[in-house]
Structure formats: structure tokens, C-alpha cells
Amino acid sequence: MPFCMSISRHIPAVGIGVLVGASTALIIDRLLVAREIRRLVDIIEQLRLEWMEMKEKLDRKRRSAGFTFSSRSSTAGSEYHSVNPSSGDEEEEFEEALDWYTTPPVALLYKDAQESFENEEDETLKNVLQEVDNLYKGSDEDKIEALNILKEHASQYSSNTAILWRLGRSCMLVADIEGAKGNIEQRKELLFAGKDHAFAALTVDEDCAEGHKWYALCLGSVGEYEPTQQKIKNGFIFKDHIEKAIKLRPKEASLRHFIGRWCFEVAQLSWLERKAAQALYSTPPTATVDEALEYFLQGEQLEPGFWKTNTLYIAKCYIQKSSYVDARLWLEKCLEMPSENQEEEKAHGEAEQLMEKYRYY
Predict the structure, then answer these.
(1) Among 63, 199, 225, 256, fewest CB within 10 Å belongs to which?
(2) What would the pLDDT profile of 295-322 be if each residue is shown by its tens digit?
(3) How far is CA 163 from the centre of its chain?
């Protein structure tokens, strides 16, 4: 089922070092960094004080009224019931939300559209691509072998988009394997390498749909190693590249789920989380549950039943819109579908819980 060369040459050089000398540039850079840190510290402290004041007011209301307020998300002027109630730790939830809307579901990485090699004249390249595509859906050892094969041919086909985006994908898949083994540093290196390979594919051909897709997915995965401000920025870039991939490959259902998932998770951000995002990045991400639902449904129209979790998220959207009849219909569809991996088993369990909760609404 579907689930991603250094780019240092693509990063603008620090021109100030050329203009005024390395030592002067270093001093200026440190001053700018120190000023930015002080500004962010002041913003965060102000947010903390505002949050504490708001929390105190809410606590007083709870005590005087004798009941607890339910968690809600307000989006585009409409109020939705949240299926993901707040735990009370807003900073932690904000970090989790950032990860959710930029990190691809593992099971969906294996839903790549089938690629034809009929027009490929280079027989060696054709055989390499076919072998790699067969291996990447196999065992962990097969995935590692696929990456090694691509590395062996990387120099020979250094400007070939088909090799480059597959390198991005393989790096991402093997990174998960290494992470499961506890090799954290190797996982990190592979994720950043995958992002660079996918980006390189786009420098060769900006109309490479798979390049956009895997660059977005790799970018989302490296977010756990980057600061919050960069995560927010990456969220915009993630969405932009998935949208470009959709334009280039409009019939791939998995892409609709990716952008639908982005919209859904962004729509869940609380007022405080949005305020924090605005403080860290001038324009915070915005999306609605209705937008998410539209993308999820588009995926089903393109390929009915293509992924169990997609049906679950359609039901979640209907729950937030208080459309409980439609929600139960999609929960039933979800429960009827087989679970082919651990992620889908988790989706099945969540669907059972939601069905039990909303059966008589």
C-alpha cells in the first residue's frame, strides 16, 4: 500500500561574509540571532501570561458553574464538535499538531501509482527501476537492498528524475527501519538525504509529480528534528508541493488523502495554538473541516475503498459537522474493510469507539 546529494548548493550562500569579511559577518550574524532570540522569548512569555490569565478565568467559571466545558474547534465562523479533545497541555498539543499535518501515514507510502517503463530506451535503467519498485514493497531487507541498488547507480544517472525521487523514497523507508532498530542518528541522516534527493529531482524537472510528492513527505518527516518556526514554514511548503503533485497527477487517490489530512489537522488547532503559530510565523496555516472532507471524498471517488483510514477520517469530518447519520455510514464502511497492517488495525479500533459513542446520536 502507498506511504518520500546534498542541497547545500541550492541554499543561498551567506553573502555578507563575502562583502565584509568572515569575522565581521560572524559578529553580525550572532547579533542578529541574539536579537531574534530575545524577541521570541518576549513573545513566548507574553503568550504564557495571556494563557495563564485565560486559564484562570476559565477555572473560575468552571468552579462557579459546577461543570466542565467541552473541547471545541472553531473554523471559518462555524463551530465543530472536536473528536480530539484537549489534554490540557497546549504546547505539547501544538507540537503534535505540527507533526500530524506534515508527517505522512506509513501505510499510505505504499500506494504509489503504477509507473510504465515501456517508453524507456535505456535497458539498464529500465531494469534497475523495475527491480527497485518490486523490492520497495517487500521486506525490510528488500527495502534496504533497493536503496543500495539506487546508490550504486546514482552517479551514472545523477540527473535522472526517476532515480532521484526513488532515492528520496527509499531513504525515507529505510529511515523508518533504522529508527525501529534504535539507530536514531542514521534515521535522521537518511531522512535529510531523502529530502535532498527528492528536491534534486525537482531541480531537474519541476513537473515531476513523484518529485513533488516525495519532497513533501520527506520534508514533513524531518520536521521532528527542526524548530517549531521551521515546522510551521514547512507546513506551507508541504501543502504547496502536494497541490502541485495533484495538478500533475490528478487521479492519484493517496494525494487527496495527504492534503485532506493536512486540512483536517490544521482545522483542529485551538485558539492558543493559532496564536502561538502567528507569533512564530507571521501567517499561520488555515484550513476548514469542510475542505478536509472534500479532499477525503475526492479520494474515494477516484479509488473507492483505497484506504481504510480515509473512510475513518470522512466519518470524523461528519462528526465535527454534527452530521451523525453520514458519520455512522462511513464508520460502518470502515469497519467492513479488512485491516491489512498495524495502522489500519488502529483505525479499526478507533472506528469501533466512535461508533459506540455516536450510535444513537
Answers:
(1) 63
(2) 999 999 999 999 999 999 999 999 999 9
(3) 23
Q: How many whole angstroms separate alpha carbon 134 and alpha carbon 142? A: 9
CA-to-CA dists, residue 138 to 12, 107, 131, 170, 182, angstroms: 39, 13, 11, 12, 21
pTM exceeds cut of 0.90: no
- How far is 14 from 86, CA to CA, in rounded Å? 43
Taking CB atoms within 8 Å and a gap of at least 24, the contacts of 239-244 are 239/285, 241/212, 241/213, 241/215, 241/216, 242/212, 242/213, 242/216, 244/209, 244/212
Closest CA to 101 of 228, 278, 259, 310: 259
- Express each pLDDT in 241-270 by its tens digit: 999 999 999 999 999 999 999 999 888 877
- Please give the share of the chain, as a percent, with pLDDT higher than 70: 64
**Coil vs helix vs strand at 98:** helix
pLDDT in tens, 89-141: 544 555 555 555 555 555 455 455 455 555 566 788 989 999 999 998 888 99
Asked if residues 47 and 276 have their Cβ atoms less than 8 Å apart, the reply is yes
187-195: long-range pairs with CB below 8 Å, 24+: 188/222, 188/225, 191/218, 191/221, 191/222, 191/225, 192/222, 192/225, 193/5, 193/167, 194/4, 194/167, 194/168, 194/169, 194/170, 194/218, 194/221, 195/7, 195/168, 195/219, 195/221, 195/222
CA distance 243 to 263: 12
Q: Is the pLDDT of residue 233 over 70?
A: yes
Pairing of strands 72-75, 78-81: antiparallel
Q: What angle do CA 15, 234, 14 make, to 5 degrees?
A: 5
**C-alpha distance from residue 231 to each of 191, 218, 235, 239, 283 (Å):** 15, 13, 6, 12, 13
